[in-house]
Amino acid sequence: RLLFWATCLSEAGQRPRRARSGATPRVAAMGSFFGMVGNDDVPGFASLPRFSPNLFVGNRYSAAFGDFEVVISTVTPLDKDGASCEALSTHTLLFEDNHGKEAASELEIARSRIIEGAHLVDAAIRAGKRTLVHCEWGQNRSGSICCAYAVLYQGWDPQEAIEYLQAQNRADRSYIGQTPMSNKCFNELILQLRPHAVTGCGDEAPVDAEARPAR
User: In what order do the strands lie in the sheet with 55-58?
Assistant: First the structure.
């Protein structure tokens, strides 16, 4: 293990990442190191133009490194110096990512937060706001909310939405442990969703597989 970390540090020193615009020297150094051995790369977000040109998905640093009008947080965001900064969030929807090992009660909370998050994304996008959804890594919780938005409000096929988010994460970011949309329980929630429907009162409302009338 010592040899592994020594090698990583040596390589990080030999091949430093170019500092991103707006990064403090401390965070620039962190970005160079974590880009190799962790998830705290900066700016730490990926664009999702096929969902919406104004939608982005990212990690806990991303809110501090992007020019966003709406920030939907599933964990407390960090500022450019790595300190917790709740003020960066516009909306907070806390829930855990246990990597596919969620208990039934945890999964029900996740399902509720994901659907609520999709609703918040839709409202922000309709208002023309540059919107970020983030979690700790920018992979499962935030990714699930963005995929739910695409399915419920944009009519995407659930599997195609998942695959698109995976592709965009890998195209725009690079970090060790990069496994976007790898929580099988969250993915199953997305696969159960269906596009929004029109209610009897003429209002549009999203529905999921459980709420959808049987045919």
Answer: 45-47, 55-58, 131-134, 70-73, 91-92
Non-local (6+) Cβ contacts of 168 within 8 A are 46, 47, 48, 57
Cα 114 to Cα 148: distance, rounded to the nearest angstrom: 7
Q: Kindly state the helix (H) or strand (E) to which residue 133 belongs, with its residue range.
A: strand 131-134
Amino acid found at 167: A
3-state secondary structure of 193: strand
Closest CA to 142 of 178, 100, 106, 97: 97
Q: How far is Cα 201 from Cα 215, in angstroms, rounded to an integer?
A: 21
Spell out, as residue ranges, where the chain has pLDDT lower than 50: 1-37, 197-204, 207-215
Q: What is the pLDDT of residues 143-158, one digit of tens each?
A: 999 999 999 999 999 9
Say if CB 138 and CB 46 are below 8 A apart.
yes
**Angle CA 61–67–68, to nearest 5:** 85
pLDDT in tens, 168-184: 999 999 999 999 999 99
CB-count burial class (<10 Å; 0-12, 13-18, 19+) for 60? buried
- In contact, 45 and 131? CB cutoff 8 Å: no
Structure tokens at 79: 């500022």
Neighbouring C-beta atoms of residue 116, cutoff 10 Å: 15
Identify the pLDDT of residue 38.
Answer: 62
